[in-house]
Amino acid sequence: MIKVLLVDDHPVVREGIRGMLEAEPDLAIAGEAASGPEAVARVAELGPDVVLMDLRMPGGDGAEATARLRAEAPGVHVLVLTTYDTDRDILRAVEAGATGYLLKDTPRAELAESVRSAARGETVLSGRLAGKVLTGMRRDQEPENPVLTPRETEVLRLAADGRTNAAIGRYLHISATTVKTHLMRVYEKLGVSDRTAAVSQAIRRGLLPEG
């Protein structure tokens, strides 16, 4: 049996989740808690396999409780179950050590299977939330405040106008090979691999004007 601790400040929500999960023959509700600090205490008392953790609770934040549980009870897997799907909330929970992140409108069968996956230590994210997490991770990995030289900026601006390397070279009185070298340096600084992506990134970062 997989023992589950339900953590939510709304008794009606806990009752509904309990009803869904108790219908599964391999899942057992070990107990309930109404706040983050209470969840930490109940984990120490009951030793559940999975904690279904609400994120925002008046009595104590779910992300903070998750971080404490990862430090004090590393064998317990926390599966966040909440109504909030903002990038900030998702990343806070993942960074705190949550095994997964689900929304409260998750169907019963998917919720039950997610609890089983979490008990095995597998990462659990619904499709659209996974996209948000990956987007946030890519954003975090982007080079911070890249600095382009005046010449690199000029070359990229001309590339944005649709000019070829040869045309840019003629305009700036440099060789096409030198133009290519400047563009390669721009790609490296912006973390991209082609001129279209470079122009898009530069505009988004305010390094080139739009239009």
Structure description:
- With 211 residues, this protein is α/β, with parallel strands linked by helices.
- β5 (100-103), α5 and β6 (124-125) form a beta-alpha-beta unit.
- Helices cover 54% and strands 14% of the residues.
- The model has no long low-confidence stretch (mean pLDDT 87).
What tags apply to this protein structure?
single chain; elongated; alpha/beta; 54% helix; 211 residues; six-stranded parallel β-sheet; 10 helices
Record the SSE blueprint.
Layout: E1 2-7, H1 11-21, E2 27-33, H2 36-46, E3 50-53, H3 62-72, E4 77-82, H4 87-96, E5 100-103, H5 108-119, E6 124-125, H6 127-141, H7 150-160, H8 165-172, H9 176-190, H10 195-204
Parallel strand pairs: 1-2, 1-3, 3-4, 4-5, 5-6
Helix pairs in contact: 2-3, 3-4, 7-9, 7-10, 8-9, 9-10
